[in-house]
């Protein structure tokens, strides 16, 4: 299979999140928009700027998820409101998502 000149506009990647007090993490899947080099650099500057809103920054690239459930075990549909609640409920997860997103883009480029 040949490499496409233009990558797919979105891709999925896993993130393992450990809830406070849990001994193991839970794997969630996120769908994100692909960014080219210039777009990625601009996004990174915005996302890591002092005072940047974590959820708003990540919502520039994150478009869907799976593996998130409510208290009754029902799948939670992705929305900006639910994503912001998730980010707010798990301190540090925004940075983890950001780093995994960057890692996925960079590793994909290095492998190709």
Would you write up a description of this structure?
The protein has 112 residues and is of the alpha+beta class. The protein has four helices and three strands; from the N terminus they run E-E-H-H-E-H-H. The protein has helices at residues 37-47, 54-58, 80-89, 93-111; strands spanning 10-17, 26-33, 62-66. A three-stranded antiparallel beta sheet has the order 1-2-3, with helices on one face. Strand 1 (10-17) and strand 2 (26-33) form a beta hairpin. The longest helix is centred in the last third of the chain and has 19 residues, at 93-111. The mean pLDDT is 93.
Short description:
With 112 residues, the protein is an alpha+beta fold. The protein has 4 helices and 3 strands.
| Count of distinct strands | 3
Strand order of the largest sheet: 1-2-3
Strand content: 15-25%
What is the radius of gyration computed over CA atoms, rounded to a whole number of angstroms? Answer: 15 Å
One letter per element, helices H and strands E, the order comes to: EEHHEHH
Largest sheet: 3 strands, antiparallel
Shape: globular
Summed over residues and divided by their number, the pLDDT gives a mean of 93
């Amino acid at each position: 299979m040949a490499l496409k000149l233009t990558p797919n506009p979105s891709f999925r990647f896993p993130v393992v999140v450990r809830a406070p007090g849990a001994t193991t993490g839970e794997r969630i899947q996120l769908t994100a928009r692909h960014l080219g080099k210039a777009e990625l650099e601009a996004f990174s500057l915005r996302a890591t700027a002092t005072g940047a809103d974590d959820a708003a920054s990540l919502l520039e690239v994150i478009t869907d998820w799976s593996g998130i459930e409510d208290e009754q075990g029902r799948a939670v549909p992705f929305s900006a409101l639910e994503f912001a609640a998730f980010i707010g409920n798990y301190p540090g997860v925004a940075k983890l998502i950001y780093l995994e997103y960057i890692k996925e883009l960079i590793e994909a480029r290095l492998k190709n």
